[in-house]
Amino acid sequence: MKFKAQAKQNQLIENITANHLVIGVDIAQETHVARAVNFRGIALGNPLEFSNDESGFTSFSRWISDLLASYKLVEVIVGMEPTGHYWFSLAHWLKEKAIEAVLVNPHLVKKNKENRDNTPSKSDKKDALVIADMMKNGYYSPVRFHSTEYEELRVLMANRETVIKRLVSAVNQIHRWVDIVFPELRQVFKILTCKGALATLRLFPLPEDLCKLNTADVIAGWKNSMKRHSGVRRAQSLIDLGKRTVGSKQATHAYKLHLEHLLEEYDLANKQLQKIEDEVKSVLERIPYTGKILAITGISAIALASVLGESGDLSGYAHGNSLSRHAGLNLAEASSGKWKGQMELSKRGRPRLRHFLYLITMCMVMTNPEFKSIHQQNVEVKKLKKMKSIMKLIGKLARLLVGLTRSNEVYNPNKVFTLAA
Known about the structure:
By secondary structure, this protein is of the alpha/beta class.
């Protein structure tokens, strides 16, 4: 499909013919509602409510067959809003039945809900009809069913994000615990998550525990936990600070138990994070073109997995601009008559894909010689603002990723300079 917006819109409209039964489905957790129209938007038949299970899908199939026979139509297209994860089951069922499934932007559904009756009323039946109306006007996008590798990356990276949030939360709570119970620990260990600090918190969690020990006892404990201990001077300093700490001396048993749980959560999150990253690298090895992309300075395996998990197979995009639009990085203009507004990012796309493309670009500007040179030229010669230069480089990165994937070529820095000239 063409990547220019107008050409793409024309193709989507032309896809709906006079032989099509256009069905809009309002998705819910347990019960969906379907409405049908023809290519002109005339409502056909009665609404159908069906459950999100096998029997419900069977009744939906019979309803479609009856409408096709009644109105002498031969093609079916079914559209729905991507509401959370509730639409997954129906979309996969439609794929198995060889029925074309498409998605409609929920934001546009809200904007178009008054087209039929000029009222702000809202119901499941009306929403289904609005979705069907938008489909016959070309306001939809095909469902991109990812292959196993890309689906695995998406699940793994979403899981990684959850684990990182837990890890950050555990670290923050450890910092809070230290501030309350033993704030002087920061004078010995500047980083509370280093091996020495964590070993100290595990072995001697409370200042009163340190007061009962001497330097040899502290060092002996450190030797059992790590290969290289923090030294005699630090051990003595730790004991001295423990004796004159200003930390809380109440509820010590509860604080000790709390720290034990925090450290367990920290260790568990780190273990899970390492397991996820190992699995991600294993999945990337099964995708043919990832080796060429990872050879580019500034692109890491985790960053590439994040992009592929959100975008799917890059070879499926006609152009890098299609990837940018999928991420919501296409430009939007607001102008009228003599008034010209500023160009802004539409941000109508996948926010996580947009986020990771930005992070990769920032990393490449710092580490990749070609991107760093282009950024300097944009800022110093072309006098662009730094963020505007970064946005241009994100577009270049999207075109680079899609181009390498589709052409089956290796990264050539000379081509990057040629395109930038």
